Amino acid sequence: MHSDRLFSPDPLTRQAARELYESVAQLPLICPHGHVDARLFSDPAASLGSPAELLIIPDHYVIRMLYSQGIPLSSLGVPSVDGRPVENNHRKIWCTFCENFHLFRGTPSGLWLETELSQVFGIDESLSPANADRLYDLIADKLAMPAFTPRALYERFNIEVLCTTDVATDPLQAHLAIRQSGWSGRILPTFRPDVVMSLDAPGWRAEIDRLSQTSGVEVTDYRSYLRALEQRRDFFRSMGATATDHGVLEPETVDLDTLEAETLFQHALHGQSSTAEAKRFTAGMLVEMARMSAEDGLVMQIHPGSLRSHNRSVLEQFGPDRGGDIPIRTEYTRALLPLLNRFGNDPRFRLVIFTLDESTYARELAPLVGHYPALKLGPPWWFHDSPNGMRRYFDQVMETAGLYNTAGFNDDTRAFCSIPARHDVWRRVSSDWLAGLVVRHVVGMPDALEMGQELAVGLAKRAYRL
């Protein structure tokens, strides 16, 4: 891989980008939001599995691209939920991937994969049918070595902290096992109550029963429901959590009085909740979650704007998170007004907001975070976690919001071994952006070097209170 990848072809900008990148390339990785399974680290001898299990089957970026070209998910070993058989020959799955690796040319997934193969496994050749079997064996042999256990790679990757995402009713047994093992790695949970906040979510009633069990609070009404959530938040904090996460369709917030909230909750308990009622309850609960965050100090994150499982056939056959989520248009200025009117000026409260709707960057989000002390703007996310997505973010956000009102970078991934590659892309693109400011004499090199450190480490650590 070329040492100047993602840098400007302009000689002056490229030279400045090199200097800036060299100053941050070896800094520790701060991972405040992601979806790596904590169980990987609970057992010191845990394995990352086969090459197919590591790089293909669980990665919705990879299977999404292959599926778009007519390759069945069953042939990629994606587990079915309806009992139909799927390919279980992992070498065959790997060969299918290698035969179609050209599909990832020019995409962020291709860049991550090439970086991962090079830096983690020492593979500096493009995948193809000709080398598929040989590279499968090479990767499989390495994955069987002690140096390639998740804990060993965590230390090799120079990760300082890695936060997982955990449902509100999770007993956090894996996190407890990590703590009891005495291992020094910092794997912290993040409190995600989406299912218990969405009255129309499949399994909501069963999840409320689990909430009663795990919290020790019998949930029979709205007040006991809030007490149970507060108890779970306290437990997550005792296990090291510093943040919550809310993956809502729209970022709408509303002030609900207790009587209306109770009515909506009772309708749901009796199976009588409408879609409109569920939407209003979630909007009210976002304000309640902000209230709790102001009181207990957990940083609140809102990730809106994804219409989940757009492809019904894939959902029915293979379940959620299989690459079928599609962004929708979102609005923030009016939607967040009730929440920000109550807590936007509260020094105890912090909200990190994300978007999949880039049209809101300059029009709404940059002005909002450039004003409210409690609000920070998260990095380009999901479909925009790419070199061009990052450049658009810098161009549309920074002049109005200011660098120090953003939250740095997070990798937001399930693919553990891709974490260094994702951070490397961010550090290269941000170095190139800063280099442009230097050569245009907007900032001097000393200031740019400090800004680079902030983008790589400082902003995320402060935003998430890590």
Structural write-up:
This protein is mainly alpha-helical and 466 residues long. The chain has 2 domains: 11-46 and 147-463, Alpha-Beta Barrel (TIM Barrel); 47-146, uronate isomerase, domain 2, chain A. Helix content is 49%, strand content 6%. It has 20 helices and 10 strands. The chain has helices at residues 11-24, 39-42, 51-55, 60-68, 90-99, 108-121, 132-143, 150-156, 173-181, 194-197, 204-215, 222-238, 258-269, 275-296, 312-318, 337-343, 360-369, 387-401, 419-439, 445-463; strands at residues 29-31, 159-163, 166-167, 187-188, 191-192, 300-302, 306-307, 326-327, 351-353, 375-377. The strands form 4 sheets. It has a 3-stranded parallel beta sheet. Helix 1 (11-24) packs across helix 19 (419-439), helix 11 (204-215) packs across helix 12 (222-238) and helix 13 packs across helix 14. The radius of gyration is 23 Å and the shape is globular. The chain starts with 10 loop residues before the first helix and ends with a helix. The mean pLDDT is 97.
Summarize the structure.
With 466 residues, the chain is mainly α. It is built from 20 helices and 10 strands. The strands form 4 sheets. Strands 1-2-4 form a 3-stranded parallel beta sheet.
Radius of gyration: 23 Å
Classified in CATH, the superfamily of the largest domain is Metal-dependent hydrolases
Distance between the termini: 33 Å
Spatial shape: globular
Order of helices and strands: HEHHHHHHHEEHEEHHHHHEEHEHEHEHHH
Strand content: 5-15%
- The proportion of residues forming helix, as a percent range, comes to 40-55%
Average pLDDT confidence is: 97
Unreliable stretches, pLDDT < 50, 5 or more residues? none
**The CATH topology of the largest domain:** TIM Barrel
Q: Name the CATH architecture of the largest domain.
A: Alpha-Beta Barrel
Number of self-contained structural domains? 2
Give the strand tally. 10
Number of helices: 20
Computed structural class: mainly alpha
Largest sheet: 3 strands, parallel
Strand order of the largest sheet: 1-2-4
Q: What kind of oligomer do you see?
A: single chain
